[in-house]
């Protein structure tokens, strides 16, 4: 399987504090890769560095043959990487329809993309004229994902999409991620709750102190539950 | 199923705006001379406030230097008329171009900063502009200013020239400019570009992550905003025949902010409401007492208490959600 996204020896800093240290990651085409680690391990920073929001001070990031590390942050989504941050960050005063429209406008995507995205999230179709700030947490997460998918990305980065959601919603989010895999979208899923993501993940990468310590197949992880305890601190 | 995105002005909002313009047109024939003069001034300054609102209300750029764009239009039109004997049309165009070009340069530099730094940088640029008008006092006559002769304040039209010093003509020209800018703003803010400005105001980083070039969009907003303000300045010069440094001072950077806040930021009619309201509060209070600023302060406190999002902003929030 070829790589959709490769992160090679990347360092990144917040001011003088180094967060990522020679960080390596390979996301294969059409897979769901879960990035696990303790609080402060560098999971969110890894996603932000891929997006160019935190500059990589060493190494390189490749989307297929395109080097992302030299691009301006707004060019990374145009190249084909979409990012759904922790906390959703919708445009609360705008309607659901307007939020989706904002997502569609960048790359001049039209009706077909809009319909395709709404097919993934039927609940949003019923709420197009509702202000997005009034949606439930789960619906907001779906809208955040829908808006990102309007870019028709090759790679989707999801930062703690199940945070604060009830179990039924978490299952819906999982189904959606699995559906995206069927469509050929490769996904990096950052999570702290192992149980929430294992059913949908193909592989799991463990990050500790800004380094990728180990990447294993989900089956391997199931065979050795201590591995989760070792890197995340829960079993 | 068709998606309801509200990206075009609704029939209701179009009717409301058309009604406001028709009412203003009717006032030309109904108002006594004194109030017609105030309204003409308010209409031109509302254009200034609408331009400011595009940057501040819609894009979230709190500038303290928009007086320089108004004054660039004022001087850009006034100086060629006074010193070179230009006609009103090319002078008006020169004023708009001067403001647009200045906004491009200032925006390009100032937008490298955000928040408080942006306020300070725009304030500093405006102060430089103000001091420049004082430095070249040979040409500008500084605070004393230039009075444009009535003879040159004529607008050439196919049917013959219009005397811009005539109160009715002045009112109608001011209303024409107001209508054009109001229509432009109304369509702009509902168009995809306008919605992207609002989204940038709400969350810049998110917009960057959706592939928007935030800097380019903000720069375009500053240029458009500066151009509208310059159009107001150029119109003010040719309609009222006075071009002075006072219009480049800090006071004229604060005033549009006040008008927009009172009327309702990020609303299309807020700038008109705010400008009109403040003009009449000051005018009425000053006719009764020399301590009129105290009255103005108390009225402003009342407005903030009862209309925390400005008059039109609060009306939209509480009663008329469709108000643009």
Automatic annotation (TrEMBL), chain A:
<dbReference type="GO" id="GO:0005524">
    <property type="term" value="F:ATP binding"/>
</dbReference>
<dbReference type="Pfam" id="PF00005">
    <property type="entry name" value="ABC_tran"/>
</dbReference>
<keyword id="KW-0813">Transport</keyword>
<protein>
    <submittedName>
        <fullName>ABC transporter</fullName>
    </submittedName>
</protein>
<keyword id="KW-0029">Amino-acid transport</keyword>
<keyword id="KW-0547">Nucleotide-binding</keyword>
<keyword id="KW-0067">ATP-binding</keyword>
<dbReference type="InterPro" id="IPR003593">
    <property type="entry name" value="AAA+_ATPase"/>
</dbReference>
<dbReference type="GO" id="GO:0015658">
    <property type="term" value="F:branched-chain amino acid transmembrane transporter activity"/>
</dbReference>
<comment type="similarity">
    <text>Belongs to the ABC transporter superfamily.</text>
</comment>
<dbReference type="GO" id="GO:0016887">
    <property type="term" value="F:ATP hydrolysis activity"/>
</dbReference>
<dbReference type="InterPro" id="IPR017871">
    <property type="entry name" value="ABC_transporter-like_CS"/>
</dbReference>
<dbReference type="GO" id="GO:0015807">
    <property type="term" value="P:L-amino acid transport"/>
</dbReference>
<dbReference type="InterPro" id="IPR027417">
    <property type="entry name" value="P-loop_NTPase"/>
</dbReference>
<dbReference type="InterPro" id="IPR052156">
    <property type="entry name" value="BCAA_Transport_ATP-bd_LivF"/>
</dbReference>
<dbReference type="InterPro" id="IPR003439">
    <property type="entry name" value="ABC_transporter-like_ATP-bd"/>
</dbReference>
<feature type="domain" description="ABC transporter">
    <location>
        <begin position="5"/>
        <end position="234"/>
    </location>
</feature>
